[in-house]
Amino acid sequence: MIVKVPIPKLGQSEETVIVESWKVKEGDVVKKGDVLFEIETDKSVLEVESQFEGTVLKILVPVGQEVPVMTIGLILGEPGDEIPEIEPVAQVAKPVQKTAQIAKPAKKSVAQTAKPAESAQVAVAPAQVATFKPNPSPRAKKYAKDYLINLDSVQGTGGEVGRVTEQDVVDYLNNSGYNDKKITPAAYNVAKKEELELLVIDGTGENGRITLADVKDAAREKPQEFNQMRKVIAERLTQSKQQIPHFYVTTSIDMTNLMARRKELKDEEINISVNVFVMKAVALALKEYPMLNSSTDGKSVSFKSKINIGVAVSLEGGLVVPVIKNADKKALDEIHAEIAELAEKARSGKLGKADMTGGTFTISNMGMLGVENFSAIINPGESAILAVSAGIDTPVVINGEIVIRNMMKVTVSADHRAVDGADAAQFAKAIKTNLEDMTLWETV
């Protein structure tokens, strides 16, 4: 008589299980009470005994595959019985997998098993290949935790999907040089608490013994997850460099006379930062060259009617870009006061959404840090950005004579989809002309 043996539900909350190992094979004769297989739940590994007698005609669920409870796991009967048609085993869907044809891993030699394991590939759409690596067995996880090793480095041999088993971990330890490692008890306790991998820690103690200092050094080198601000910065700037074809134009500006004018104002107790002069000069140049005050999607270009200039403000863990609206229409002292207010709000975490939206162009100034020259990455949604470096006393030739002048380099990064080289060069020249023209700065 044919008997279809299901994978049982052993707990009230269990909806899926994984076959940890089969204790019988096709052709074996089974008696009541014999252990058929072990299953892994989310809590433990349990043995399943047979409630029937017969010969194993067909095993349907491979080791390591997660399936719903009550799935038919094997068929018992008498030799020669016709095996009934059974619907294919439904593997539990993984959130990132879209189809379930799993490539069977090739057998590895002993020497190869010490190398980091390669994930089995899951067949998906032709343009995309996803990877799938089955969960290690609970015993493998416990063994790895006790011995401070990373299971990603262990080649799995369990079942058809290459699941990492306890024996795989033991083999890895024997073949990886782990047994040659020595560690002090205090260092071991800290390493376990920090979830460090013992094999990658270099010991500086006697005969290469891993000391507490070695473990503390390794703990400091653990990857630290980005905060939310840094994640956004990373995403946006990666997007910019990948999608926007940047090109760069650099010019040197003689700031000698402007710095003298700034000192005169300071003596009158009017404190205007260099960044304010630069912003005003940029705003006036943008009026002349609106192509730099635009945005493009690669198919069309939008010219901005407002000149709203963002100024990058560095914070611990990232940076923000508050925006000075209508910078071309504001006096120097207005711009100075607004920049100071926004910078203070940024550092105290009080910037609102309105303070950081609507920008059409950005200035990044690292002159106060002594940077001699750099290039900035364009903010998505804009066509250019200006990098401002430090003013440095430099020997230059004027009217055939060598004189010392305060020279400052600025670099325009432009989106070549919307901005031609000549546009960027003329824009940079306009900024230079504005900053060197003292008639612009006679009144504040």
Mind explaining what this structure looks like?
- The protein is 25% helix and 24% strand.
- The protein is an alpha+beta fold and 444 residues long.
- It folds into 3 domains: 3-77, Beta Barrel (OB fold (Dihydrolipoamide Acetyltransferase, E2P)); 112-220, E3-binding domain (Dihydrolipoamide Transferase), CATH 4.10.320.10; 228-441, Chloramphenicol acetyltransferase-like domain (Chloramphenicol Acetyltransferase), CATH 3.30.559.10.
- The strands form 6 sheets. A 6-stranded mixed beta sheet has the order 11-20-19-18-14-17.
- The longest helix is centred in the middle third of the chain and has 16 residues, at 228-243.
- It starts with a strand and ends in an 8-residue tail after the last helix.
Helix content range: 25-40%
Output the strand order for the largest sheet: 11-20-19-18-14-17
Shape: elongated
Please give the count of helices.
9
CATH topology of the largest domain: Chloramphenicol Acetyltransferase
State the name of the first-level CATH class of the largest domain: Alpha Beta
Helices and strands, in N-to-C order? EEEEEEEEEEHHHHHEHHEEEEEEHEEEH
Strand content: 15-25%
Structural class: alpha+beta
Unreliable parts? 93-132
Secondary structure tally: strands? 20
Give the overall average pLDDT: 83
The tally of domains stands at 3
What's the CATH architecture name of the largest domain? 2-Layer Sandwich
Biggest sheet layout: 6 strands, mixed
